[in-house]
Amino acid sequence: MLDYIFFAGLVLYFAALCVYAAGQVFRKENIRRAGWILYLCGAAVSFVYLAVRGFKAGRLPLSNQFEFAASFSWGIAVLMMFLHYRSKAEWIELVGIIMTFLILSYAALQPREVTELMPALRSAWFGFHIGSAAFSYAAFMLAGGAGIRYLMIDRKDPQDERLENIDYFMYRLIAFGLILLTLTIVSGAIWAEEAWSSFWTWDPKEVWALITWIQYSIFIHLHLNRHKRGRFMAWYAVIGIPVVLFTFIGVNKLLPGLHSYAAVLMRTML
Questions:
Q1: What digits encode the pLDDT tens for the residues 41-54?
Q2: In Å, how far are 132, 165, 230, 240 from 169, measured between CA atoms?
C-alpha cells in the first residue's frame, strides 16, 4: 500500500512537469494552471505518504537516505507553494517542479523498507536536526533554480524587470536556508555530544555541512557588505547546487562515516 501511494505522488509530479512545460512552450496560462494543480496533488499525496509511513514506523520519516530524499523533495514543494501563493514567483515554478521530481526519483531508487531507529538516533534532536537540514537543502536548491532562471532571462533581455525580483528571492532563499543549516549544525553538535561524547568529530558529513555553510555565508557577505548583485550572484547560487547534492548524496556514497550507518541502515542520512 505504501509503495502505491509513493509512486502515485511520483507520477503526479511527472504529469505536472509535462503539462506545465507544455503550457510554457505554447504560452497557455490554462495549461500551466493545470500543471500547477497536478503539482499540488503530487505534494498532497507525498505528504500523505510521509504521514502514513511515519505512523507505521512510530517516528518521523527521516531516518535513512530514502526518507530524507522524500522529505527533501516535499520540502521543495512546500517552499514552492509559499513562493507561488505569497510572493507570486511564477518564474521559478518549472525549475522547482523539475527539482521536486528529480529528488523524489532519486528516492525511488533507494531501499524503501521501514527500519528501526539505531540507538544513536533515538533522541529529542532527531526531528529538529534532520528536518531543518531537509528544508535548508530545499531552500538552497530553489535558490539555485532562481539563479538558473535569472541567467536564462538575462541572456534574452538584460533589462527584464523580473531580474531584480529574482535576485531578491535568491538572497532570501539562501538567507533562510543558511539559518536552517546553522540550526542543523548546532543541534547536530549537541546531539553528537550526547551520542558520541564529542561536539565535533570531523566526520565527512560534518565537514561537508560546514563547507556548505561557509559557501552560503560568503554569498550573504557578498550580498550585504560588497553589494554584489546580478549575474555573478546568479552563477554563485547555481554552483551551490552540486555542493548541496554532494553533501546530500555524494558524502553518503563516497565518504562513509558516523553519519552513514551503512552496515545497518543502508547509509542513514542525518
A1: 999 999 999 999 99
A2: 20, 6, 12, 15
Query: Considering only CA atoms, which of 122, 136, 105, 139 is closest in space to residue 6?
Result: 105
Structure-block grid coordinates of residue 207: 565537514
pLDDT, average across residues 6-20? 98
CB-CB neighbours of 10 under 10 Å? 22
Element (H, E) at 24: helix 2-26
Domain ranges of the chain: 2-265
Q: Are 177 and 217 in contact (CB under 8 A)?
A: no
State residue 192 phi and psi, 5-degree precision. Answer: -65, -35
What DSSP string runs through 45-92?
HHHHHHHHHHHHHTS-S-SSHHHHHHHHHHHHHHHHHHHHHHH--GGG
Structure confidence by residue, pLDDT tens digits, 128-143: 999 999 999 999 999 9
How far apart are the C-alpha atoms of 26 and 145, rounded to whole Å? 22
Q: Is the pTM of this model over 0.90?
A: yes
